[in-house]
């Protein structure tokens, strides 16, 4: 089976790509390498690995790459509200229009498995779990473009979408700005964090379980196709304060407090049910605690000190 991954050198793709190759799949990665990353260097040992430097919005290039693909995984995206707010046009054209392009050009037989985000739920109802049937009310440009892209993908039927919880964990193309990754980094180096609106809740999932759910989707495609699936940890619908409490178990010197004034620009607040994906036989391997311990080891290696003397 031949798999095309756009944005395959990003945070998720840099974990997913080597796992697919190790399982014997033939993988082509299209990426702009806009962050100068070398996260797929070790994949070059595989004869079944192909890499193309280019733009996912390039219609002629996408046409060429689709010819030899059985499965398409569109990972290319500008991710997160801060980055999206800096480049509205890029966000719209990469996160939505490039996905619509793939949907328009792909044959009915080609399969698409796409990650979106459960941030599309926006602000949920207190005490009520968001399911795949819950209304989508995104409150950011990022969330809106992902909801639009999901609609385009599911309209073609031979597709699956994964509404990912907030992802955490180590990747060869690391991101320290994701919530769990960020809080553990602050706890490890600063030993303190000030929290705004600490009652806001989110769901979480480890990056290696994200890779696992893609493989699960590929292997069980016929019985799963045509639907969206929430993908998160059932026991990790946590507020920011509860997340800090979990981190403190592994870093006892960590101090956190909630600011009495001020607000978080990210207003997402919801709890999520992941029962639909669990009913297909999928189960996560990584608990939140295991991921926190992994991050502590990772931050022993990594340090954001480009503009520092120490």
UniProtKB/TrEMBL annotation:
<dbReference type="InterPro" id="IPR050177">
    <property type="entry name" value="Lipid_A_modif_metabolic_enz"/>
</dbReference>
<feature type="domain" description="NAD-dependent epimerase/dehydratase">
    <location>
        <begin position="3"/>
        <end position="232"/>
    </location>
</feature>
<dbReference type="InterPro" id="IPR036291">
    <property type="entry name" value="NAD(P)-bd_dom_sf"/>
</dbReference>
<dbReference type="Pfam" id="PF01370">
    <property type="entry name" value="Epimerase"/>
</dbReference>
<dbReference type="InterPro" id="IPR001509">
    <property type="entry name" value="Epimerase_deHydtase"/>
</dbReference>
<protein>
    <submittedName>
        <fullName>Nucleoside-diphosphate-sugar epimerase</fullName>
    </submittedName>
</protein>
């Amino acid at each position: 089976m031949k798999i095309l991954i756009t944005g395959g050198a990003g945070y998720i793709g840099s974990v997913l790509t080597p796992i697919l190759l190790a399982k014997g799949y033939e993988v082509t990665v299209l990426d702009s390498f806009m962050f100068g990353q070398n996260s797929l260097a070790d994949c070059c040992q595989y004869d079944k690995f192909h890499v193309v430097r280019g733009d996912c919005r390039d219609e002629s290039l996408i046409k060429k790459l689709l010819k030899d693909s059985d499965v398409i995984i569109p990972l290319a995206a500008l991710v997160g509200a801060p980055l999206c707010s800096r480049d509205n046009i890029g966000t719209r054209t990469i996160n939505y229009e490039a996905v619509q392009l793939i949907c328009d050009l792909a044959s009915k037989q080609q399969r698409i498995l796409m990650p979106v985000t459960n941030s599309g739920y926006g602000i949920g109802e207190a005490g009520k779990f968001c399911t795949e049937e819950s209304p989508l009310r995104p409150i950011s440009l990022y969330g809106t473009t992902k909801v639009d892209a999901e609609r385009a993908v599911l309209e073609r039927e031979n597709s699956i979408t994964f509404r990912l919880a907030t992802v955490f964990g180590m990747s060869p193309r690391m991101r320290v700005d994701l919530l769990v990754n960020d809080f553990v980094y602050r706890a490890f180096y600063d030993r303190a964090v000030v929290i705004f609106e600490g009652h806001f809740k989110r769901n979480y999932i480890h990056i290696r379980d994200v890779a696992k759910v893609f493989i699960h989707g590929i292997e069980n495609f016929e019985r799963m196709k045509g639907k969206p699936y929430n993908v998160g940890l059932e026991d990790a619908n946590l507020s920011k304060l509860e997340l800090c409490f979990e981190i403190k178990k592994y870093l006892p010197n960590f101090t956190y407090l909630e600011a009495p004034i001020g607000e978080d620009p990210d207003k997402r607040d919801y709890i999520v049910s992941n029962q639909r994906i669990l009913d297909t036989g999928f189960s996560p391997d990584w608990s939140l605690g295991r991921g926190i311990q992994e991050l502590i080891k990772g931050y022993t290696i990594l340090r954001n000190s480009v503009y520092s003397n120490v």
